[in-house]
Every structure is written in C-alpha cells, then in structure tokens.
Design goal:
65% helix
C-alpha cells in the first residue's frame, strides 16, 4: 500500500524585538460611551432627552422669538435632537446586529458631528444664560417675562451639552489613537 508520509518543514522563529523600543500594538477595546456600545446609546438618549426638554420648555413660552439668543437656542437644540436621535438609532442597529462602529470614516463623521453639535449647543446655552441673567438680575423685569422657563430651558441645554461632551471626547480620542 502506498501511503503518503507527512513532510516536516522547518519554521523560522520570528525575529526578537526589544519591547522597550517597539512595544506591541494593542487595539483599544470598545469603551462604554463609544458608538455601538450600550453606554454610547445611553449618552445619545440623554442628549436627545435634555435637548427635547430644552426645546419644549423654550417653545412653550410666547415671547422667546423676540430674543435672538433664544431663537439660536431653539435652532441649536433642534440640530442636537436630530443628530442624537439618528445616532441613537444607529447605535441600536449596531447593538442588535452586534457590529462594531470602529470604521475610520464613520468615526471621523461621528467626531465632526459631535464637535459641531456640542459647540452649537454650548454657544446657544451660554448666550441664553447671558440674556436670562440680563433680564432677571440687571433689568429686573422677570414679572413681565417667563424667566423661570428661560432658565429651565437654558439649564436643559447645558445638561445636553454635558451629555454630548463625553461622546465627542471618546470619539476624538479613538480617532487620534489610530
């Protein structure tokens, strides 16, 4: 009977490297708060919730349109709402199909979008806070305006900004570490 015999081929050992000179590359794990993780979904939902609260409180007043900073706040939180809910749906999809959102292009888009929306929301909240202080403390005309509603909407916008900041920082860190 003719049976083939296994052939043994010598294998070279990989070259030794000094760990101090060339440390082995380690891929970063999915940190909670990054896109496609449950923490990232929670951050997106917090962003959306507080932006909707700011929008709802500000729009419920009748005289917000008379102040440019309050109109800017409404526009900024609308952009924040749309951005956050669209990325929340993307996070839900990624969690359901167990996909990682670590694509370089997608991560770049998330970083740029988070940076733009966080800057818009922060600037609008600061402008609204300035006008609220002007109306309440400097002019003392809170009896004629909805100062409490303006303050609440401004606080909700700041909280929405606090929720978008970790998303931006984690995405930027992940993008910079590539």
């Amino acid at each position: 009977m003719f049976v083939s015999r296994p052939a043994v081929h010598p294998v070279e050992a990989p070259p030794l490297t000094d760990a101090a000179e060339n440390p082995p590359r380690v891929r970063m794990k999915d940190i909670q708060g990054m896109p496609g993780t449950p923490g990232g979904l929670a951050l997106r939902l917090f962003q959306f919730t507080f932006a909707v609260a700011a929008l709802g409180v500000m729009v419920s007043t009748s005289d917000f349109a008379s102040v440019t900073a309050f109109c800017y706040l409404v526009a900024a939180v609308i952009v924040q709402c749309l951005w956050s809910i669209s990325l929340a749906f993307l996070d839900i999809y990624a969690l359901l199909v167990k996909r990682s959102l670590r694509n370089s292009r997608a991560l770049c888009m998330f970083t740029i979008g988070d940076g733009i929306t966080s800057t818009l929301t922060f600037a609008a909240a600061c402008a609204s806070a300035g006008i609220t202080v002007l109306i309440g403390n400097d002019l003392n005309v809170c009896s004629q305006n909805h100062c409490t509603s303006f303050e609440t909407a401004t606080a909700m916008a700041f909280i929405s900004w606090f929720a978008v900041s970790p998303s931006f920082l984690l995405n930027f860190w992940s993008l910079a570490s590539r």
